[in-house]
Design brief:
Mean pLDDT: 76
Radius of gyration: 25 Å
Number of strands: 4
Strand content: 15-25%
Structural class: alpha+beta
Low-confidence stretches: 1-14, 237-242
Helix content: 40-55%
CATH topology of the largest domain: Four Helix Bundle (Hemerythrin (Met), subunit A)
Shape: elongated
CATH architecture of the largest domain: Up-down Bundle
Number of domains: 2
Order of helices and strands: HEHEEEHHHHHH
Largest sheet: 4 strands, antiparallel
């Protein structure tokens, strides 16, 4: 697991445009939001009790500079209302709740199993609502589904990962992502964070595409070779026979 931790520390994650036909980076510091506003209980004439106990909601809308489409982030502000001083801020003040629309990665390889894509997109939906356990578990499910789709042998899924047709370092990364999925569902001493899930969400499509694109290139090469063989094996003409 140490390898995965080192990747998390050194990797600066940038959320991407959620629209699958775009998926370019958007959240560098120079991007001002199109809309940035709070929803307070006092805005809708809430009761005194609601004003004292309900946290404020923050809506941020941005526009992707590449595809020009809007996307939204809804967060809650962890703040207590004190009648004499207004909203008292706590640290941290903002907790992201959901991003809309949900990111939906399009794999570069055409032949990726629909079941693998569905499991990975489910992990993305869990990530969009801040579910660490759900995202980690669905990432593990995507790896299990990948092993089943590739029909690799092994006593268990850890053994099957070793038999996937990828580089050894890729196999190690797949094991680490599986390990993350195994452990986010258990109480333990180590701290699991959404940063780890974010790294896994970036890495896994690369690993999956590597497997399927390799197969697609091999299929294309086989077809070209078969075509060349059929051309070169044409029957001799009558002139050549003479």
């Amino acid at each position: 697991m140490r390898m995965f931790f080192s990747i998390v520390v050194s990797y600066k994650y940038f959320m991407k445009c959620p629209y699958p036909e775009c998926r370019k980076d958007y959240n560098d510091e120079g991007w001002p939001p199109v809309y940035h506003g709070w929803i307070d209980p006092e805005d809708w004439e809430g009761s005194i009790n609601e004003e004292m106990t309900t946290n404020r909601v923050l809506l941020i809308t941005r526009r992707c500079r590449f595809c020009n489409q809007l996307f939204h982030t809804l967060s809650v502000g962890h703040q207590n209302y004190i009648s004499d001083h207004g909203w008292k801020r706590q640290d941290p003040t903002i907790e992201p709740l959901i991003q809309y629309p949900t990111s939906k990665t399009k794999f570069e390889a055409k032949g990726v199993s629909k079941e693998v894509v569905a499991a990975f997109n489910e992990a993305e939906r869990c990530r969009s609502v801040g579910s660490l356990t759900g995202a980690g578990s669905c990432l593990r499910k995507a790896i299990y589904t990948l092993c089943d789709a590739m029909d690799v042998s092994g006593a268990d899924y850890r053994g099957k990962i070793v038999n996937l047709p990828v580089k050894t370092e890729y196999q190690e990364l797949l094991k680490q992502i599986k390990w993350l999925g195994d452990n986010v569902t258990k109480p333990g001493q180590e701290k699991y964070t959404m940063d780890m899930v974010d790294v896994a969400l970036e890495i896994l499509p690369v690993l999956v595409d590597d497997i399927y694109i390799k197969d697609e290139k091999a299929d294309t090469a086989a077809k070209l070779l078969a075509r060349a063989r059929s051309v070169n094996s044409l029957p001799e003409t009558s002139e050549e026979q003479e």
